[in-house]
Records
---
Amino acid sequence: MVKVRIDPRDNCISDGVCIALCPDVFEWGDDGKSAIVAQFRVNDNIAEGNVPDDLKDCVKQAADSCPVQIIHVEE
Ligand code: SF4
């Protein structure tokens, strides 16, 4: 299991890079910013998730590619 946070989520510039790279984990929130998909959310928090190991690589790729560096991954 990998922990992922979008923090500070307010800083998301909605370019969609994380969603393009890792659509199993990231989706658009109602406010037009990136959110963790419902399936992997912790306590219904759209900015925090626990993701299975097989999605680790794409989550890391999304974190590395986020232009504002707000995606954080903890193994
Ligand atoms: S890559 Fe970063 S800035 Fe772009 S949509 Fe995802 S969280 Fe937002």
---
Amino acid sequence: MSTFQVELKKVVDDSYEIEVGYELQEKLIEDIKNGLVGKIRKFAVVTDSIVKPLYAERIYRMLLLAGYQAELIDFLAGEESKTRQVKEYVEDTMLAKGFRRDCCIIAVGGGVVTDLAGFVAGTFGRGVPFINYATTLLAAADASVGGKTAVDTPLATNLIGLFNQPEKVYIDIATWKTLPKRQLSSGLAETIKHACLANYEFFEYLSKNIEKVFENDDAVCRKIAHENCRIKYQVVMKDERESGLREVLNLGHTVGRAIETVSGYRLLHGEAVAIGLVAAARMSEKFGYCTAEEAERVTALLDRACLPTQIPEYINREELVKKLYTDKKVKNGQLRFVLQKGIGSIVQIGENDFARPVSEEEAREVILAMK
Ligand SMILES: NC(=O)c1ccc[n+]([C@@H]2O[C@H](COP(=O)([O-])OP(=O)(O)OC[C@H]3O[C@@H](n4cnc5c(N)ncnc54)[C@H](O)[C@@H]3O)[C@@H](O)[C@H]2O)c1
């Protein structure tokens, strides 16, 4: 018998730029011309049925005009499309159109598009580069930054995927103007989450200005776009693979992700997170990490952002409690919640541990109280 040692130590530089601004399509083409993805000349522009005519077609045409090969691939808009089947559809379409390893994927859309296209890019030909062009506040606030890509399964959201960092992220604030109000609110949930977990001043700023987002106020939208990115990348830079600190970004997501699935996607991701944030604030209050007044301030801000703060009547409470166990923070069958310390900080449980064990009874109590 003989043993071979395969030496594969790697130093990987996955650094990338996030560009925040208005109408960044031309900048994207200029960056590609200047070597953003090396010598690649073939692009798959992946988008959904709503974003296609609004923004993706223009990027596709600009690529052709600049002399690149490009194909536009779209799927039906909505969370229901974030599946293995739609991933397969995108892959098969790319293969049929002659795409091999020498290509780049440009994801143009919200979090569904960036999550799915980033996952395709991670496995197509064992990995091709991808670029995110975020067109929702939610994608700008969270989904397009940080390198988590995934699809949903019938059991729960985001269960199949990989860590895959984009070559660059474009956050085009001009695209928020066509977003329905409900979608803007959905993005504000992740924004409020960031303030709750990392920055009291930002929470105060949101408390003063949140309604201005609905008026497309330039200064407020820019501030929100920058602050979201800053908070998220500061965490991701320290713990890309969620071995500890990155769990803090899960504030509100234990109940949030579970209720999103149990609602059959009647609730948008951000709406589900908003309910989850209220649950987390109440749980934090219950364990003495924040005051009743602080928990109430979180609820009131979510309310002003036109987000739900109660569990809807149609949600089966017991099904919701059971669904909590599909959360990735569950350890040895034990539920674990990320909790906030006051406003602007997270409870640290131990070294590199940011999720507190919570019994099923404690979780049920908080859920039943949210009528
Ligand atoms: N990868 C991560 O770290 C991460 C973080 C948070 C959320 N997510 C995921 O993000 C997804 C939610 O993202 P989302 O809210 O952007 O969803 P989405 O991509 O479904 O977009 C919401 C809706 O808005 C439409 N839309 C997009 N841009 C538009 C525009 N500019 N004008 C008009 N309509 C527009 C879309 O067609 C869609 O109907 C969820 O799947 C969630 O799991 C991922």
